[in-house]
Specification:
mainly alpha
């Protein structure tokens, strides 16, 4: 869940992305939208937030979208690994 990601890590990534967007010459009113979009990618790919990843049976939706459609909310998850 996004709320479970270390706030210091989120702040550092948001600050880094903001600096990059400003340094590239993007207008101030666009910077926040760029950062928000790139934070979604960060949560999905780098932070490994399950609810932001594509749903296995329909990758056009995220896990959180499928849960919301079913009236459910993820509180956590457990990973089980078989074998070595």
């Amino acid at each position: 869940v996004v709320d479970d990601v270390d706030p210091a890590l989120v702040k550092a990534e948001r600050d880094r992305l903001t600096e990059e967007a400003i340094a590239s010459g993007k207008p101030a009113n666009i910077v926040e939208k760029i950062v928000d979009g790139r934070m979604k990618v960060f949560y999905k790919d780098e932070a490994g937030v399950l609810t932001e990843q594509p749903f296995a049976k329909d990758d056009s939706k995220t896990v959180s979208q499928v849960l919301a459609e079913a009236g459910l909310k993820a509180k956590g998850f457990t990973l089980f690994v078989l074998g070595n």
